[in-house]
Amino acid sequence: MTNRQYDSSQVASIYIEVRPTPSHELINSIIKQLSKHCPPNSNNKWSRAVDVGCGSGQATFKLADYFDQVIGYDISVPQIKEAIERNKFDNVTFKISPGEEIDLEDNSVQLITVCEALHFFNIDKFNSKVDSLLSKNGLFATIGYYPVPKCIRLDDTTVNLDRISNIFERTFQLWQDHGYPVQVFVERVLNKYRGLNLPFDKVCYEDTFVTTLRRPATYLIDLINSLGTSELFRSKYPEKDEILMNGIKKDLHEIFGTNDLSSVEIEASFEYFVICFKK
Asked: What GO biological process terms does the UniProt entry carry, in alphabetical order (predicted)?
């Protein structure tokens, strides 16, 4: 990973609490594909899975039941620290490393996953690393979601909350205008990585998975603060960030008709996609 977006303790602590996790249905879809091309061992598990750009381990932990060993890699020390503190699995470990430089034996991994991080990598170098690590018929699965949820207000589902998307889009544009290349990442996720060069055999593409969270409306502020660029922008432009956040709060107060956002419960849905490639 050549782009450091989540390398602060504050963002790491928010990230683990705020970000959605892939559904069991999505993980099962990957495992089903792996079973088709690379049968498990006699214990009905595979030997090793690697989760690259693992963050604080949300997706990593969901692989634990299917493998003898699962290793999560990330370049962020605070994120890895959060993952280690929350790890309850004997067969799951976490290490600090760029995805392009993982130090494991060739042909020793049956599944490599990347969740919401592929757009940060040096793709050519990472492709080479994936090719060297995967065993014959091993699977590379890339998972993504657009971090702007579709929202409904639970006590009045007729309220139009489309303006919430506008808040995120204006925030992304402000960050872009100040030199943070968020739009290229946004476009890659919105295009579901169609423009990225991945020289492997595509064996599945699914975009029907949804993770839904019930939270108070203050969740939307936390979600923005969980984005890595938020901390970078705040550190460099504190006064502009204060204006930005005050404006976001004002807009949310108007949208929900109250200054007490914690009193309003919303349902936030994130649409996921997964693409599987076979070596």
From this structure: methylation
